[in-house]
Design goal:
This protein has one domain (2-214, 225-425). Helices cover 84% and strands 0% of the residues. The protein has 15 helices and no strands. It has helices spanning 2-11, 14-64, 66-84, 91-124, 129-154, 158-209, 223-254, 257-270, 272-291, 296-323, 325-332, 341-366, 373-390, 394-421, 433-438. α2 (14-64) packs antiparallel against α5 and α9 (272-291) runs parallel beside α12 (341-366). The relative contact order is 0.13.
Amino acid sequence: MMAQRSDVAHGFSLARIGGDAAIIVGGSLLANIFNYLYHFLISRRLGPEDYGTLATLAAGAMIFGVFGNTIGIVAMQDTAKLWATRHVQRVAPFARAVAPAALGAALTIAAIALGAGLLAGPYLHIVRPALWLAFASYLGLAIFSAFFRGAAQGAHRFGLFAGSLILEMLVKLVSALIMVAAGLAVLGAIGGFVVGAFVGLLVVALPIAGPRGDSDPKGEHDHLELGSRAMSLLWLSICVLLLLFMDQLFAKHHLAAAQAGFYGAAGTIARTIPFGVGMIALVMAPKAAAGLHVGSDMLRRLLALTFGAGAALAIAGFAIAALAPAQLLSITYGPSFAQAQYLLREYAGAEALFALDALGVAYLQAVGSYRITTALVAAVVAEAAIMALFGTSGPRLIAIAGLVNLALLPVVGAFVMSTLRTAPQAGAPLSDEAILLDEPRLL
């Protein structure tokens, strides 16, 4: 028991957090490199018009993927509690008990997405049923994978989490290149998503759910409670993904095919900023969720480190994009996308602001504070209405998104700070809690 307590204490030390961050951020960075290689290599083979279609489908997958994010956060919250209270042997039984419900949710959402895609196809100028079927297949796999990745995250199995992401993106890249070379064009590019997601699921699900473990004698993991919590998280996740990607949908509608492709290229590069800052959240979220069972002082120190790092990373990303937009596009997309440089500077500024908003929301989700939902819904409605009415050009769409992201910053900050004033403590304080809070190496 003392060894377990020592391990939990070490889990909140600066050295352990740094080591965990190196694994999960390094792994996520490598996965994102493969992901961006996918976009850069596939875009050169498809050309601006077909790549505009692919970018729209990818944006739609991210928006529907919010359901997977929600399910993953719920799993992460529960396994983080098991880790913090030294009951890691209950992680596998939890995963097996909840996996059928997660699979049912994944299949239901995939079916809804398929129907929605077929209905929205004429509006988005994507009318091939096969594309929407592949789109829905990917969603089902990705959402189910998110459940197991969330469980791995909360249980502090960061190597497993990172390995699943890396292999998914690598397989996606290789399989898509093969299928596009075989003449399948956009369908082959989306097929790469499907194959990669299947491999990523296998890599994380088997080690998480496979061990025998000990069941929870109190039966705490009831499906109704988990579902209720998931619904609370869902609205936040939907709003974040809509704010990140809905401008791409309006670009596909308002702009000519080639212009939408240029807009998609600029957006893909600009969104590396929130994705990069989001890597910090991959470590922050399970630490914050576990911190609820340790004390509010740890949350305060955790926020200082993670938001300081997030702000520095966002500023650095914006500076690179602002100073060298033409070079970035030339290296990544090639000369046929050179016109996108006139959008990239402004796009990067908007995404740097959004990165900090999203980091704050990720923290609120991890600690179970959902009161910001109304403000985010209002932001989504306002942005969508303004883009629908006035977003008739790329610069206008970017300006609208940037202003909304800027307005959200103080709102998100206020809600984050409020959690420090009312942060819950563990129902039964850990015997080593004093050591955790007083340890000089703590965040």
